Amino acid sequence: MMGMRRVTWMAAIVLAIAVILSGCGAKDAGAVVKELNEVVSKMESYQGVGRMTLHTGQVPQEYQVEVWFKKPHYYRISLTNDKKDITQIVLRNDEGVYVLTPHLNKSFRFQSNWPDNQGQAYLFQSIADSILTDKDRQFTAEENAYVFDVLANYQNASLVRQKIWLDKKTLQPQNVQVTDAGNNVMVSMEFSHFEFNKQFDKDSFDMQRNMTASMLPTAPTMLPKEGQSPAAEGEQTDGGKQQASAEGEQTDGDKQQASAEGEQTDGDKQRASAEGEQTDGGKGQVSAEGEQSDGAKGQASAEAGQTDGDKQQPLVFIDPAYMPEGVTQSEVTEVKLGDGKGLLQRYSGTYHYTLLQSKPVDRSVSVLPATLVDLGYTFAVMTGEDKKTLIWTYDGVEFRLSSGDLPAEEMVAIAQSVQDQSAK
Length: 424
Hints:
32% strand; globular; alpha+beta
């Protein structure tokens, strides 16, 4: 009898241990979500490196992505186009949010709470938040990863769901696949390295350091004219009484302002708006909106974009692949922009808008009321309220899409369709 009791107790102990071990190896969704929430709350910083592939065009486009984050709000996102060997950086520090294009020595700075409330497939906060907030999340466990299928929260409304792989031991992101309504993978982000609580140098999020350190020797550089140097970030004229605006809009109390192209007329008494309305009768200045320069009444010249004495490559208009239904376009015209030239096309019909293309000017722009827009292949800046302008650079060209009635989602669709288009 005693022997049977001893066997029974031993069997019970073995069974209990088996149950405990089994429970430890098979966490449910609730346990993983709770652990993920703890990781987010305790996280001080991280570094992520990987490859993002966009399937939004006819040919998949690949980009190297590196993300740095440090509490409370320091970000550095580096996006490199492998084929063109061009890097763009988004930086957030105590001074604001920057969009840096180092090979053009160009920067935008504006006040923004980015990336709050804007999902990004390469940001751990966005990945974790989408898992934590979706009460209808789907969960499975693989050999080395927990997999969540949740709603997507992106600027592009066509991206509706995302599948996220998290490392079982560390909950570090391994892979993210974002799909459309037809369950087609449109964006994939595969991390090759991820490290929580990464130690960064004191000046890792400094604008000037990132502009200097990210210069690519193989990329074309827009050189300043002889005797000139690139404008310092936030540099002001006339004792700081004026401020450059990317849209050329005057702030309260400002009497004069630099034009949208960063050029001022004699005495700084006039300014050109992004849409080309002239002040003071428009004396001595041609607007950016479409006043034609001499000899530019028909098709734009192949030499557009060359400044006086400069030997830059000719600027040829890049026609977006997408145009909203019911919209027609005019011929491309050549316009004068300070000392340089640009190419402008007007669109009319269901919506009215203009697309201005020019060689980026070597400059920095002061703080703007603007929104950062992730186009996938590059970053853009949206300015204005009633009349909006979307500004971005691609393949050595600066684009300015402006409209008073074109919806923001249509503006983004047009900008995204420029990717991988040939100049015409």
